[in-house]
Amino acid sequence: MEISSILGFRLSLKQRYFLLLCIGALAIVAYQITRDHSQRARMKRVEGLRTNSSQFSLEKQPFRILGGSVHYFRVPRTYWEDRLLKMKACGINTLTTYVPWNLHEPERGVFDFQDDLDLEAYLRIAASLGLWVILRPGPYICAEWDFGGLPSWLLRDQNMKVRTTYSGFTDAVNSFFDELIKKVTLYQYSQGGPIIAVQVENEYGSYAKDDKYMPFIKEALLSRGITELLLTSDNKDGLKLGGVKGALETINFQRLDINEIKYLDEIQPQKPKMVMEYWSGWFDLWGGLHHVFPAEDMISVVREILKLDMSINLYMFHGGTNFGFMSGAFAVRLPAPEPMVTSYDYDAPLSEAGDYTTKYHLLRNLFSSYHNKPLPELPATQERRAYRSVVVQQHLSLWDSFHSTEKPFKSERPINMENLPVNNNNGQSYGYTLYETVITSGGTLNSKNNIRDRALVFVDKQYVGVLDYKVQELVIPDGKGSRTLGLLVENCGRVNYGTTLDEQRKGLVGDVELNSKVLRGFIIHSLDMKPGFVNSLQTTGSWVPMKQQQPSFPAFFQGKLYVNSFPKDTFIKLPGWTKGVVFINGRNLGRYWSIGPQQTLYVPGPWLHRGDNQVMVFEEQEADGRLQFTSTPDYGMTVDVQ
Questions:
Q1: Domain covering 546-640, topology
Q2: For residue 5, what pLDDT is reported?
Q3: Cα–chain-centroid distance for residue 88?
């Protein structure tokens, strides 16, 4: 019905438009007045999470945090509600999540809080389901995530000292927090939102290089409007150095040691005790075994924690996936960091694809006794499908793909990825970098341990061998005249934990030598495999049919996955392939590597569509010509977490 009909007389188009504007403005004002009034009333009558005794209180009533970690950036947005509904049905009352700075600010001053990174939408879903939230905004998050969530462009500063009050770092943190914190303050408990606590940094006690740093981060939160309870989180060794005045200290562990609990009680007498990270499983490394933590062992520790009247957060409740190049690296065992696999299943209570596990059911039974009402019914699980194999139809040599990248850069000396003049002078963050130079003889190529992390070596585009942390010398065959030496260097993942964060530059980080002579005069190609590059490759006319010509390696391969009904989750497996990256409809599913343990990659149904789906694989050394699909994951041979 038109407005003019309601009013009983006709209005011109301009008059109607003006009237609609007025009505809209009045509605906004009325909403704001109502909201402000309700917030003032709320602030008068309720009280947020408090630590005034040995037990938490919320709204002045005793409260125990039964928490679980689910990271929005490891789960397709379409499944956020599904995972949180399953969390609610398990008896968990509090969601915890990190915030990955490197995804939200991929280039300095360029921020992204859209689509799968829409943190506000995630918080709204949690609120709608009645879940409280503990926000862990970093800026460092660890999380087995590349560089602990820090953006790689920080490393363009040769003097960078991350996680300190070095001005180059604090200026960047302030800029990021200016954007982030204003988005979350309205979701605090005092504003009617779900956030009941905010963590100050993360496990700083294990780093502890600057005693002014934690007070800086605390003030950075408070000055931007954070008013809820502040927490810190450390393992047993970090507790002595990781705290900050005015924030409750919490502990992280997997096996219960009563002496650690006593120590926590000693440093904070008459305060609530909480396990911020109770490790429900563990992460995996390429070339290792798949870690499992027996369900019976897990539930017995959780039961003891609750008997001690403590609060708990399960890390992880649902792990998800390190899509793209986001998996970090483990650096405790020197001399070389060990890269982490793509899956972040973590042997968590809710599996990588959102399935219930034995751990889930045991937790639900235990947590149900801590609720006055019956827990919600279990939401249905997502159906999966083992699609027909995809036959690779065409291939494209690595060397023919460079027309889709930024122009190569000439440099007398090698330049590390982060300092390349690409991506609006933010450098290269992830993927591969090709360094080419001219040689006039064969002999011994020595990396001088300056390759980060792994290089395929070529002479005139012919594969010669691999250089990495363990293999630092390679024989280059003799040949006539001038030849092109190529080193395709892969960033296998930056270290996410430990004291070597300032040393995480990738690519060639120094000189390489041939017959003890330093090589000079490089042409450098950046191959970061961002969506624009992948989409450009799909439409290029340079692809060669498999029947017409055998591929040379490395190469890109394309095929089509046909889906004849509503798309379902699936897993892709690549027997006969060696090492590379898989893309579905332009989305980077992550790395695969035949050395395992992981043998499948998770493919979310929402990333597929009816009809033909484009599958692209970048393979370094060997291709089977066929891509298989299965409804069940294969994480490899298992080993108990020690």
A1: Jelly Rolls (2.60.120)
A2: 40
A3: 23
Domain ranges within the chain, ordered by starting residue: 1-45, 47-368, 398-527, 546-640
Q: Give me the pLDDT at residue 40, please.
A: 47
- Cα 67 from Cα 313, distance rounded (Å): 4
Q: Say what angle helices 119-128 and 80-89 make with each other, to 10 degrees.
A: 30
Q: CA 619, CA 476: separation in Å to the nearest integer?
A: 23
304 token code pair: 């003891």
* Complete DSSP assignment for 321-364: B--TT-B-EE-SSSSS-EEBPSB--TT-SB-TTS-B-HHHHHHH
| Rounded Cα gap, residues 357 and 360, in angstroms | 5
CA distances (Å), origin 353, targets 83, 114, 289, 549: 10, 23, 20, 38
- Identify each DSSP E strand in 371-501 by its residue range: 390-391, 394-397, 409-411, 432-439, 443-446, 451-452, 454-459, 462-467, 473-476, 483-490
| Separation CA 425–CA 540 (nearest Å) | 26
Angle between the 167-184 and 213-222 helix axes, to the nearest 10 degrees?
Answer: 30
What pLDDT does residue 466 have? 98
Query: Tell me, what's the pLDDT at 404?
Result: 86
CATH class of 47-368: alpha beta
pLDDT for the residue 15: 53
pLDDT recorded at residue 31: 37
H/E segment holding residue 23: helix 13-45
Residue 493 carries which DSSP code? -
The whole-number pLDDT of residue 30 equals 42
DSSP classification of residue 50: B
Contact 161, 91 (CB under 8 A): no
What does pLDDT average to in each consecutive run of 10 residues of the chain (642 residues)? 42 49 47 46 69 96 98 98 98 98 98 98 98 98 98 98 98 98 98 98 97 98 98 95 97 96 95 98 98 98 98 98 98 83 98 98 98 97 96 96 92 98 97 98 98 98 97 96 98 96 97 98 97 91 93 97 98 98 98 98 98 98 96 98 90
Backbone angles phi, psi at 532, to 5 degrees: -60, -40
Q: Which residues are catalytic?
A: 203, 277
Query: b/e map of 271-290 (b: 16 or more CB within 10 Å)?
Result: bbbbbbbbbbbbbbbbebeb
Q: Output the pLDDT for position 28.
A: 43
Q: Taking the CA atoms of 235, 236, 240 and 246 in sequence, report the sign of the dihedral they define.
A: positive
**pTM to 2 decimal places:** 0.92
CATH topology of domain 398-527: Jelly Rolls (2.60.120)
Q: What is the dihedral of CA 342, 345, 346, 348, to 10 degrees?
A: 170
- Residue 39: predicted pLDDT: 52
CB 571, CB 633: distance < 8 Å: yes
For residue 639, the surrounding DSSP H or E stretch is strand 638-640
Q: Torsions phi, psi of 344, nearest 5?
A: -120, 40
Residues across the chain: 642
Domains 398-527 and 546-640 share a fold: yes
Q: What is the pLDDT of residue 541?
A: 82
